[in-house]
Amino acid sequence: MMLGMPAPLVRWSKNMLRRRVPEILQFEATECGTCCLGMVLAYFGRYESLDKLRGMCGATRDGISAGSLARAAKQAGLNVKGFGVSAAELAKLPMPQIIFWNFNHFVVLESLQDGVAAVLDPAVGRRRLLQSDLEAGYCGVTLCMEPGEGFVRTGKPASALSEVLIASRGAGRAISAIALVGFGLAVLMALVPALTSIFIDYVLIKKGVDSWKFWFMFGIGVFGLLLGPVLWMQRVGVLKLQTWLALSMATRIVAKMFSVPMEYFSRRFGGEIGGRVMLADAVAGTVSGALVSMIAASMQVLVVGLMMASYSPYLTAVSFLLLSAHAALVGWISRQTNDLDRRLALERGRYESQVLTAFNLMEHSRASGSSAAMGQRVLERHIAVVNAEQKHAPFTALMASLPGSITGILMAVITGLSALEVLHGVFTIGVFVAYTAMAYLLITPFNQIVSGFAQISASSGSFDRVNDLLQVASEEEFAATQGLPESSELLVSNVHFDYGASPVLKGISLQVSPGSFVGVVGSVGSGKSTLLGVMARVLKPVSGEVTVGGKDIRTIDSAHLSSVVAFVPQKDQIFEGTVLENLSMWDPAITEEQAMDACKACMIHEDIMRRAGGYKARLREGGSDLSGGQRQRLALARAVVRKPAILILDEATSALDGANEAAVLENLRAKISTIVFATHRIGTMRLAEKIVVVDRGAVKESGSHEELMQSAGMYSQLVAASQGAVL
């Protein structure tokens, strides 16, 4: 212990000097291990995106194990040692550590000294726990890590400011114009007190030539009149640039959302992702607005600072020293509140997700009598947001009141020092008035710069949610080939596909001949839906390839893919809009006649014509004003309207009765050259020319219904089981 210092002060000084582990909060409950690894890597100087870490850890919605975490850490170049020790012995091991918590969670132990543990919990942020609390949560397993020979320090922390700077690359002229106007405005603002100083000293006090009075008053008046238009020009330019930057960032985020692999959405919950585009717009607006205002304010600080230095370099240096202390204080407070900002943004995201989930499950919760429980979950999330806001509120109030308080203190100090200069004969009365006026003109924009940095720092929590999407690697793009495939032969060759660490397709191969009608069947979890998703280029295989007419499906231009392969998933998606908009997906090339033809084939045309307005009738969000069978048939027609060469249906007729399902499939067969479909109704498989039986990610058998029944294999067992279920 340091001599004469109390233990709490010693502990505080050690905490201030110790390098802190960067905090990363989890977006979903199963990401704790991934976030912990990211924090430890960042502590040692390697910054990796959560998306890459999820891939390294094999993370899915079910989370990861300690073994997967250790393997991922070794892959990143860390030496990893696992220990089964008591909580009291953790302090003897190197820090930081990843410890197993409450048998279902991972946290980072940052330090343990004097019976107090500093813990970074990905779910709630940085916490300080007593030894007894640590012993209650710790489960006896810890992972200690340190850089190995292959460890490489790389990357840097992502920030909202860096994203705005990227977005501003195409706005160089606009930024230069704003800086130039800001410079001119600063000159005008600084000249007014300078001229006032001359007027006071040489006209009022020394009783100068009377003609000076007119010209000084005229000059001050002209400068004052010019201030208004120039200030208006600056604010209009700032607003336009802010709007442009916000739009640029939002466009980038929307484009990113549509370019990430589908596997990303399997690791995320739709409700949490849904609010990110709007959140991105808010972050972009806040950060870009702060940045642009800081550019204009910087010009004023520069010009006014130089003018003040021409009067007194000493006082100007003192002024900037005091302003630097103010900036350091605000920066320190901002760093202390960063964790609270992140926690508040995270809780708001969870609340939005829970509300959206409750809306989506409203019918089910009422039917099952669980509305009260669902409402309780929403209320709990809202309470968590309110609690986070309450913890954040004192710091928000402090940051709001600080500029005014600091301005008053600085003006009092500068005025007092300037008055001393007058008493010592250094300043005249006119210079005193001008210098104090300029001091105010210096402090105000400096406060804007400091507040701008504070706003950018405060947006870190919201930006983390947006950046989680931005850092996802876009789906690999292949050079698009000219022309369309010459035939509709679909060939799947040795395809492997994993969901995280769980293999789903294991070297599967399949040939679908042109003009064939192929059924895919298998038990729940066999991989048939995944196979159809890979065949339609909705999912990207780990290895292997899918070709259409000899062309790799990845090289077919996305704009023409829907005319080659159309995919109808299990879950139909109907949005608020007209029937025709739902069928055409806003493609003006699709006419109402084409839509009618497709709807007739899918046996939904008559239902549409019974609605007021027919194909111009508006549908509700999610198709809530349609039956399940109507929604599915509309989704089928959406795919058929583009007249694809190959149609892939994944349980796309599950809401139809057997007779209607068979009739729709027969109609589709007459319009589409090649069809591959999966259905839970084994009886419908009799319509298929070829039946493919999938089990545990591999093709077990294939052939016609009669051939497979005679072989007495898995297909015959599925048929027998379905008949038994019917009986």
Automatic annotation (TrEMBL):
Q: Which residues form the signal peptide?
A: none
Q: What is its main location?
A: membrane
Q: Give every ABC transmembrane type-1 domain span.
A: 177-458
Q: What does this protein do?
A: Involved in the export of calmodulin-sensitive adenylate cyclase-hemolysin (cyclolysin).
Q: Name one GO biological process term.
A: protein transport
Its record classes its membrane topology as:
Multi-pass membrane protein
Protein name listed in UniProt:
Cyclolysin secretion/processing ATP-binding protein CyaB
Organism of origin: Rhodoferax aquaticus
Please tell me whether the keyword Lipid biosynthesis is annotated for this protein: no
Q: Give the keywords, sorted.
A: ATP-binding, Bacteriocin transport, Cell membrane, Cytolysis, Hemolysis, Membrane, Nucleotide-binding, Protein transport, Transmembrane, Transmembrane helix, Transport
GO MF terms, alphabetically ordered: ABC-type transporter activity; ATP binding; ATP hydrolysis activity; ATPase-coupled lipid transmembrane transporter activity; peptidase activity
**PROSITE patterns the record matches:** ABC_TM1F, ABC_TRANSPORTER_1, ABC_TRANSPORTER_2, PEPTIDASE_C39
